[in-house]
Amino acid sequence: MDSSGLVCEKFVKFVTRSDTSKNEMRIPSDFCSKYGNRLPASFHVILRNGYRLPVDFDRRRGILKGFLWFFNHFDLKGGEMLLFEYYGRYDLNVYIIGTNCSEIEYPSIVHHLQTCHPGRVTLGNGGWRFLFFVDPTVSLVDEIEPPTTFIERCGSTFPIWPRIGLNNGKVFRGTYSRQTGKISCLRTMCDVLGLADLKPFHMLLFTYDGVGMVNVSVFDENLFEVVFPGSPTSIDETSPTFDIASRFEITIQPCHMLKYCYGVDISTEYKDLCDMWARIDYINVYSGDSSWRLQVRKRSDWKRTTINDGWVEFREDLGLNVGDICSFQCCTDSYSNFTVSVIKYHLNDV
Questions:
Q1: Which residues contact 150 (CB under 8 A, 6 or more apart)?
Q2: Final residue of a structural domain among 70, 95, 121
Q3: Contact 287, 268 (CB under 8 A)
Q4: Strand partners, 184
Q5: Measured distance between the N- and C-terminal CA atoms of the chain, rounded to whole angstroms
Q6: Do 38 and 71 fall into the same domain?
Q7: What is the distance between the alpha carbons of residues 322 and 65, in angstroms, rounded to a whole number?
Q8: What residue numbers bound the domain in which 277 lies?
Q9: Which pLDDT tens digit goes with each residue over 82-118?
């Protein structure tokens, strides 16, 4: 599944009983207007078990064609929800949320046109998800109770002090009670975002990475993700102070501008920061209203780290050129979320 590149707004499709007998699926007009020009006429919808569904995209109508096989293969009856992710490339990722609002246990199947075996789906490889619906008639509560199936799968590893991440890169601490099985984080989340409550929104998506991080996405009544202003290092009247913990810089070289760039080295000057990342890891980079997910990877000698997947999309979207300097800054307790600023190269400055 694509997991690097431009981070686009997620969207959710509620599956009705009648949908399961149709071959077409409409996607949100907001998504089509922003990203429809990036999607090819034919691509795949991919699940985390390796299942790849070939679909055709009718850009004018905002329709995906080819879903009948999908509904039949996964025996969807109606009442399920499909969560879609897109990283600005060729394919869409999809996750199936069951009628209990928790991500399902995926069957070991692939599409009948595929010749490979299904992949193994684990908590450590992609995390696990659940949805929480906002009740507009109730005042803001701090605690939420995840679905029982989510707790059964994740409760033993869920941290008592989880790090909660928002889609603008802000990170704060929540709490989890093993006695009650409830997560407390909504009041702090509203404080960080400068919100009085969550009544303007329809639902929240919680994604636990299996280690200690829970990412929260907020959706409007159209089941389209709401992107909040700000960045990991931004400070305003409503959010607490976030201290700059570390940084690194990259000066754009000719080799970074190749059509197929096979890695952008991060100087060993920033080794202490790079050592905070796993051998293969991901960082989130924010600029203005946009963000990108970049894969970082240690070279075989472990002496140098490179940016791999996602670089080309990042470079093109920011309009980088040779000589430009990208400065990445992150905050304490958040060594994977960076604000990027670009110093443009001008020949006259030389």
A1: 102, 103, 128, 130
A2: 121
A3: no
A4: 143, 175
A5: 43
A6: yes
A7: 42
A8: 244-349
A9: 999 999 998 999 999 999 999 999 999 999 889 999 9
